[in-house]
Design goal:
The chain is mostly helical. Helices cover about 45% and strands about 10% of the residues. The protein is built from 6 helices and 2 strands. The radius of gyration is 17 Å and the shape is globular.
């Protein structure tokens, strides 16, 4: 069984965080959308006024160890704990429509699917559309 330790990210973790972002984007077939650099991660996460709060899960498992050991649940529970400690009232997760395994996990943990329950859709402005919107 894998051992999981979840801790606050340190500035020195930025290289590995970026690697994980890229691996996730590749898994989600969205590699072309990764635009952030290691320097931007440092500035946004560890500057004077951090834009985000990052946790790192260190997972020690044997190579080829099977999934389904509760690691995802442990990570989400820790995120909820930190969010409540920071005064947050919600935890929102985004998942692609083909990732049934993730959706099933979130529902099993008590999350409400807002697409089903309330009809919410997510929108994003980026690049030229964002510059145009801002008049720049």
């Amino acid at each position: 069984m894998a051992f999981v330790m979840i801790r606050e990210a340190k500035e020195g973790d930025c290289g590995n965080i970026l690697r994980l972002i890229r691996e996730l984007a590749e898994y989600e077939k969205l590699s072309d959308q990764v635009k952030i650099s290691e320097e931007a991660l440092r500035a946004d996460g560890f500057g004077e006024t951090p834009f985000y709060h990052c946790l790192v899960a260190e997972i020690l498992s044997a190579p080829g160890e099977p999934q389904g050991q509760g690691i995802g649940s442990k990570i989400i529970k820790k995120v909820a704990e930190v969010a409540l400690d920071k005064g947050c009232s919600q935890l929102r997760l985004a998942v692609l429509d083909w990732n049934k395994r993730a959706m099933d996990l979130y529902k099993a943990l008590g999350a409400q699917d807002l697409t089903e329950a309330e009809g919410w859709h997510c929108f994003r402005f980026e690049g030229e559309a964002m510059r145009e919107l801002a008049g720049k």
